[in-house]
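Can anyone check this?
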Amino acid sequence: MPTISYQLYCSRNFPPLGDTLSMLSGLGFKQVEGFGGLYDDPAKLKEQLDENGLTMTTGHFGLPMIEDTPEKAIEVARTMNMSTVLVPAIPPEMRPTDAAGWSAFGKRLAEAGKPVLDAGYKFGWHNHAFEFDKVDGDDLPLDLILAGSDDLALELDLGWVRVAGHDPAAWVEKYADRIVAVHVKDIAPDGEATDEDGWADVGHGIMDWPALHEKLQGKGIDHYVLEHDNPKDHERFARRSMETLKTL
């Protein structure tokens, strides 16, 4: 059985946080993944996690915090006892449009992460779909980003890989030695779940989870983070998705 975590961004529309953490604990979760909106008071956040028997081993941090105030990111990571700090995205206006730009961004990301690495944490990137939009012919931004440094880790979002038209298993194979976690998210059949942005509870969409699980386990990748970008009912998503993973 892999380690199963829950990206708290899924529940951003269902405050308060304490109720979410209690719900997750009741469903059997032991780990959660943080995001930038939660880090204003690290000590209070850690207290809430402890009260519910949860740990936060990975977290998403905006690039501005990593670049401008790395000490704050490190403080959060230290307070939570995280192992891995991840930058999840950059806004459209910051995204390069050619291979040289993405290569430069990969180097910028690696440079920004040096204080985090020096503090003893893993540091890397979390993909969406835009990193698979070809530039200058056949170059893919995700490859160019990761070429910025061998020290950059990857949290591979399997759902976004599929949305981008690629085979998630092929990308697991390609970067198995860099992958520190995967986002486990499912995609509804075409035309369904339009009120949930086309996402589905894990095991209730089009993704082949038994095959992906076998691939991941074969590569020694066993940190799974459940995510749904816009669930109407976050308890339903968490419960049904955990049930699916328990059957694998």
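Reply from J.R.: I decoded it. The first strand starts at residue 3 and ends at 6.
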